[in-house]
């Protein structure tokens, strides 16, 4: 099982069975990968461990069939147990995405070793403090959001006072400048946001519903990738 050569978080799909309007998760992943998505995260708050392992297996298979195992990263949200169990069954999963309240980054690193990927979403109200902490040296990228409030994750960006803090374009630009590791932005991101986001200097965008709930997920994924590539100042 080789490892990802170089992490590319430019077009990042987060997906679970609760997001697809009943359509198979693997089919949508296949379409996103063929449209040029570079990173896939399996995230489900309803699937069992076995279902998550099965989804991870299917995702790894469609990435392999597309000939993109070396370039498209496959990550699992939260579940270190699922990542380890999948890898022990020979499934090529490349790492984990955690939040600040999940298994600590240090522990993930101990179990996953140096070569696997660990991404983290920092709490919106603590982001600027967090990006200066020691954890950052153990991380591969930051997830930042939400850009807009989103029904997909209504508590995203919720502060101590219970109000959602969305990230302004000025804040996102500042994070991109200050962060020593790559930054991916999401939460309510739609096609129309891509040109503005691409100009902030961040390394990518992540979406759930803009692809998973689209009438034609492949077309939606293609449009997002093309928009990013057209406007991204880093390429
Ligand atoms: N993490 C922060 S916001 C979010 C996740 C998983 C959901 C984003 O969903 P959508 O549908 O792209 O707004
Ligand atoms: Mg989490």
Automatic annotation (TrEMBL):
Task: State the CDD domains in the record.
Answer: TMP_TenI
Q: How is the cofactor bound?
A: Binds 1 Mg(2+) ion per subunit.
Q: Which UniProt keywords apply?
A: Magnesium, Metal-binding, Thiamine biosynthesis, Transferase
Supply the name of the protein.
Thiamine-phosphate synthase
Q: Where is the signal peptide?
A: none
Give the gene name: thiE
The answer, when asked if DNA repair is one of the entry's keywords, is: no
Cofactor(s) needed: Mg(2+)
Q: Which family does it belong to?
A: Belongs to the thiamine-phosphate synthase family.
Q: What does this protein do?
A: Condenses 4-methyl-5-(beta-hydroxyethyl)thiazole monophosphate (THZ-P) and 2-methyl-4-amino-5-hydroxymethyl pyrimidine pyrophosphate (HMP-PP) to form thiamine monophosphate (TMP).
Per UniProt, where does 4-amino-2-methyl-5-(diphosphooxymethyl)pyrimidine bind?
41-45, 77, 121, 153
Q: What is the lineage of its organism?
A: Bacteria, Bacillati, Bacillota, Bacilli, Bacillales
Tell me the InterPro entries matching this sequence. Answer: Aldolase_TIM, ThiamineP_synth_sf, ThiamineP_synth_TenI, TMP_synthase
**E.C. code:** 2.5.1.3
Residues recorded as binding Mg(2+), renumbered to this chain, are 78, 102
